[in-house]
Amino acid sequence: MKKIGIVDTTFARFDMARSAIEELQAQGTGFTIERYTVPGIKDLPVAAKKLIEEKKCDIIMALGMPGGAAIDKQCSHEASMGLITVQLLTNTHIIEVFVHEDEAHDDTELAWLANQRTREHAHNVLHLLYNPRHLTKNAGMGLRQGFKDMGPVKK
Amino acid sequence: MKKIGIVDTTFARFDMARSAIEELQAQGTGFTIERYTVPGIKDLPVAAKKLIEEKKCDIIMALGMPGGAAIDKQCSHEASMGLITVQLLTNTHIIEVFVHEDEAHDDTELAWLANQRTREHAHNVLHLLYNPRHLTKNAGMGLRQGFKDMGPVKK
Amino acid sequence: MKKIGIVDTTFARFDMARSAIEELQAQGTGFTIERYTVPGIKDLPVAAKKLIEEKKCDIIMALGMPGGAAIDKQCSHEASMGLITVQLLTNTHIIEVFVHEDEAHDDTELAWLANQRTREHAHNVLHLLYNPRHLTKNAGMGLRQGFKDMGPVKK
Amino acid sequence: MKKIGIVDTTFARFDMARSAIEELQAQGTGFTIERYTVPGIKDLPVAAKKLIEEKKCDIIMALGMPGGAAIDKQCSHEASMGLITVQLLTNTHIIEVFVHEDEAHDDTELAWLANQRTREHAHNVLHLLYNPRHLTKNAGMGLRQGFKDMGPVKK
Amino acid sequence: MKKIGIVDTTFARFDMARSAIEELQAQGTGFTIERYTVPGIKDLPVAAKKLIEEKKCDIIMALGMPGGAAIDKQCSHEASMGLITVQLLTNTHIIEVFVHEDEAHDDTELAWLANQRTREHAHNVLHLLYNPRHLTKNAGMGLRQGFKDMGPVKK
């Protein structure tokens, strides 16, 4: 039985964890989910590490929604660096699902994007856990999560 | 009995630790507070680590007030990276409460913001310690500390 | 028997790993190849570390294609920092082959560049493994991978 | 008997270590000073670590004078990150005293600032070693080293 | 008998290692030199670490020539961060000699600068190894490597 950890924030403007949980559960069984909510994205790295080490999670989804200002970009950079460090300290994947507010034109699109990107990354989590060959089959295909795929380029 | 560590600076232009201590004590009992003041925000990471390792603090509030110039942004970035590293080395939360001088229009607003943000984050500290479910209940609600909440976006 | 690890992404718009494998195999024998595909470049560091530690790879090629926007540059920076950390934690070389979308004028050139740079770096991987003196012979020669060499400058 | 380490550079345009030593010695006794000069600020972190681990210093002053160009800002950022890492690896304070060339209007002011900031930080070093309560008494007072204090803001 | 490690690249447009070796050997005896060439500057950190740990080098010169574009600055930043990390993991100095292409007005000056800066830093390496007091004698003198010294500023 695998355990999937989900770390999310009260800062985000959309309940991305609900989307993640729904999508994961819709895809199958054979795993449990552990959720840990923190205030902001800079709190995510230690939460992820605690889920891995204290709750024995096999993989983590780190969900966040940075604002569009320069200081928010700095925060998201710091959070991302922390999440990479956690992965290297634990040899465990953390799929970072960050939706930047300035990626969307309005609140409706932002909600759509947060939901869609989270759900598509939930599939990546399951592929990494159960079916890594599926990712190799799609290597170099220009896949995106949320907005449409860019697709491959041809020689 | 839990122990809450507070690290703060002489550089800050507002005694944020006083706000933190008042708010924590107003919320309840069952914990002690350990305070450690350093000159500037880049001194906060090692102070936090010492409180965790030498004073056995269960959680830390890191309080700082970076200036508005480019070099100050660089310093706050370095401090934040250090605070994340401390969390990963100790599996302990550090709630960073930074108030950037350029967030406020004048000194009065700056004082208001420093006080308000610190007090709201004091609640986050207590939730993480005693009631993590409360944070999950507010996941994705677009909460902010200091200025008003952004609120959630709808699909 | 040496083992060469290749980590690549579904985000990339060209199957760089195929180029790497073809070129490595065209150059000789005496090694096996282990491939690990992840969603994006920020997932590469932990994948590389797992190939080194769990699959005993002797060297890694890390293949990615960051987009041209500011956020993509930030992601590539984070991935690169992670890849350097992995090298220092394992004393193992990781040859990073990143092709930035804005390096090419159009999709055709992008595909050409991804293929060409990967193949030229495959030679660097083999030199590091089997013939480090070859690199010393070319020290200071202004070599580039993909676009043409800059060449040396003269006193 | 405490030991205070001082790391400084040949790159700096002012002998900040002399100011530090004079000021420390003027303030009292009960400590020895160990000095270690390196070429540039990026050499400071390892020098500080060696003073702490090999010479058993209890605290370090890291003195540097970055230039005003973009590359110099990058170097000072790298040095600062290294100095924070050393602190976290050793649980020892390093008081960073950096004077940026572009902080001063001319060479005379630059010399004045380097001397003044170093001397004021020498007091911080002694407070951290012998009298941490003094810093807490000044928490939130908007203290600066070199140029005049900003002072506190009022609610 | 001391051992000096030199790491250099095929990316550089000048054989800086030759300058380093010539200058070191012209200065004296009592040491051996170990050279390790890698493709680019981001490969330098792990090469330096391997020279220190596997070849028992006492000090390292890290030689590189980053290009002038924004992406090159990012690469040099990543390499520098890695080189600092290696120093902290090994308590060993690495003298970074980077010559940025945009520091010179033309190829001739670039070659001159690469040669000159490397040779002057070779002296720093020998001072750190054999005569650290010489550096202290020059503390605060505004020394530069390559271009002319800035000199000290006066109070």
Relevant terms:
homopentamer, 155 residues, 4-stranded parallel sheet, 5 helices, globular
What would you call the quaternary organization? homopentamer
| Uncertain regions spanning at least 5 consecutive residues of chain A | none
> How large is the radius of gyration of chain A?
15 Å
Side by side, the strands of the main sheet of chain A go 2-1-3-4
End-to-end gap of chain A: 44 Å
Q: What does the largest sheet of chain A look like?
A: 4 strands, parallel
Total helical segments of chain A:
5
Please report the two chains with the greatest interface, counting residues with C-beta closer than 8 angstroms to the partner's C-beta.
A-B, 44 and 37 residues
Write down how many β-strands of chain A occur, each being a DSSP E stretch of 2 or more residues: 4
Mean of residue pLDDT values of chain A: 97
Summing up helix and strand content along with how strands pair, one would put the structural category of chain A as: alpha/beta
Gross geometry of chain A? globular
The helix-strand sequence of chain A is EHEHEHEHH
Strand portion of chain A, in percent?
15-25%
**Helix percentage of chain A:** 40-55%
